[in-house]
Design a protein that fits this description.
Blueprint (H helix, E strand, L loop, with lengths): L16 H17 L3 E2 L5 E3 H8 L4 H6 L2 E2 L11 E3 L4 H10 L9 E10 L11 E10 L4 H17 L6 E6 L3 H15 L8 H9 L13 H5 L10 H17 L4 E2 L11 E8 L8 E7 L3 H4 L8 E7 H10 L13 E5 L2 H16 L4 E3 L6 H11 L3 E5 L1 H6 L1 E6 L4 E6 L3 H8 L1
Parallel strand pairs: 1-5, 7-8, 12-13, 12-14
Antiparallel strand pairs: 2-4, 3-4, 5-6, 6-11, 7-9, 9-10, 10-11, 14-15, 15-16
Length: 425
């Protein structure tokens, strides 16, 4: 029997890992420059957390979660779930550990695995990676602008310049209640023309009809009432202030009044970054303000919060299509030590260890190969220098330091390898 990866999962092999590391380094660097600190939460949580945090009527909760009963003595919970997203976990951690007592504002970021039971396709796996940040504690539009700025700068530093930032405001809860009724009144005469998914959403969550990718509904949806026309005065001012901040920062955006979030705890700002390089599933990432999530999770007081999440696999697809990894290559070793004989191997290992301890990338043969095979490996590795160690070299205490690019050789004392390599590295 040959074991394979489970459907919907993928190995990240050594030949590809440098791409992932480049993205992760960029995410960490940008987030930390903005004052965000990494948070790591458990990979599974109580199922009820996501049911409340994402919404019972969503596809994620209804169809896509990996949930199971722990069946362990002493467990009070009925069911646990592999996290399908991070926002609910972050809010749970914030409330559980009373992070508001440490500082009035909590700013965190993450780079972590998520799990959803959906049909695997390009850019969509059952185990997938997301990065994002969350800012908790501020209602001000400037915090919304900062979160969007974090997202924008990450993509800019990764070389993504063709993506479009879409922006909308969802107003407050009363706004959306009024808008919900207006949407149902509008779609009711068109009900028979709606597809099965939209018909199901009509009563449960009519705002999500606006999310439909069904082109046959595009004209009907385009004429639907706009949420922005229902905004209260405070939400209008908040939205105008946000747009002003983004304009001052030089962050281009498009207003998209069909961009919505279907859950009651979402409020005001909603945004999404889209790319034509992804086809119909065009979203690279998105986010919004979720001031009501804390009370949905049982908090007595509302915690204003905003954040975003982006999919790494989708980002990889766009970067590969735009050849944005071509300038990146795994760093080759500075030195390859070819050792012949047991005594030489001992010395080679000692010298290699000293170099590595000083931060120099160094490799040596571990297979007991012939000199010819070792030199071939040194060439394949892309090493800058090669040293051959054998009985003669050990006896004389002198070695030839070979520069691989032009085959020039320099005779040096064995105990000078470290100094010579450090000068040349």
């Amino acid at each position: 029997m040959k074991f394979q990866t489970v459907r919907g999962t993928k190995d990240i092999l050594p030949a590809e890992i440098y791409k992932w590391q480049h993205i992760e380094r960029t995410v960490r660097s940008v987030c930390e420059r903005f004052g965000y600190t990494e948070i790591r939460t458990p990979v599974f949580e109580e199922t009820a957390l996501f049911a409340r945090g994402i919404g019972e009527t969503t596809d994620v909760v209804g169809k896509e979660m990996f949930s199971f009963n722990p069946s362990m003595e002493g467990d009070a919970m009925d069911s646990i779930t592999l996290r399908p997203e991070m926002t609910a976990s972050v809010m749970r951690a914030y409330l559980q550990h009373s992070l508001q007592t440490l500082a009035p504002l909590t700013k965190v970021y993450y780079f972590a695995e998520m799990f959803r039971k959906e049909r695997p396709q390009a850019g969509r796996q059952r185990q997938f990676w997301q990065f994002g940040c969350e800012c908790l504690g501020s209602t001000a539009a400037v915090s919304d602008a900062e979160v969007i700025a974090v997202m924008s700068l990450i993509y800019r530093e990764l070389g993504i310049t063709s993506a479009t930032m879409k922006l909308n405001s969802l107003g407050n809860l009363e706004t959306r209640k009024t808008y919900r009724v207006a949407l149902q009144d509008y779609f009711r005469p068109h009900f028979e023309k709606l597809d099965a998914v939209s018909k199901e959403r009509f009563d449960k969550n009519p705002l999500r009809i606006l999310d439909s990718k069904n082109q046959s509904l595009a004209e009907i949806i385009s004429d639907a009432p706009r949420l922005v026309d229902f905004l209260d005065d405070d939400s209008k001012k908040h939205f105008e202030t946000l747009q002003s901040h983004l304009t001052n920062l030089g962050i281009a955006f498009e207003l998209d009044f069909k961009l919505v979030r279907g859950l009651d705890y979402y409020s005001r700002t909603a945004f999404e970054l889209v790319s034509t390089d992804l086809g119909a599933q065009d979203a690279l990432g998105g986010g919004g303000r979720y001031d009501g999530l804390s009370t949905a999770l049982g908090s007595e007081s509302e915690v204003p919060a905003i954040g975003f999440a982006s999919g790494v696999e989708r980002l990889l697809m766009v970067m590969e299509k735009q050849n944005l990894f071509d300038h990146l290559k795994p760093q080759p070793p500075v030195l390859f030590i070819a050792a012949l004989g047991e005594a030489a191997v001992k010395v080679a290992m000692t010298e290699a260890y000293k170099l590595r301890a000083k931060g120099v990338r160094c490799e040596m043969d571990l297979l007991g190969r012939s000199l010819k095979s070792q030199m071939r490996e040194a060439n394949r590795s892309g090493a800058t220098y090669t040293v051959v160690l054998g009985d003669d070299e050990l006896e004389k205490g002198i070695v030839q330091l070979r520069k691989m690019s032009d085959a020039t050789q320099t005779q040096i004392a064995l105990n000078e390898i470290i100094d010579k390599i450090q000068v040349g590295k």
